[in-house]
Amino acid sequence: MTDPDDQRTRLIEPTPRGTTGADRSMRTLLGRIVDDFTRHLTTLDEG
User: Fold this and answer.
1) Is 30 in contact with 37 (CB distance < 8 Å)?
2) Above 70 in pLDDT, residue 9?
C-alpha cells in the first residue's frame, strides 16, 4: 500500500548524467549476457 503523502520518491530524481551512466551500464550488462548466451548456443550446436 502506498502512502500518498510520502515525499521520499520526489527527492530522488535522475539527473541527465545519472541517467546516461545507468543506460550505459545496462547496455554493457545486456551486451555481456547476450554474448554469453550466444557463446553457449554456439557450443551446443558444435557439440
Assistant:
1) no
2) no
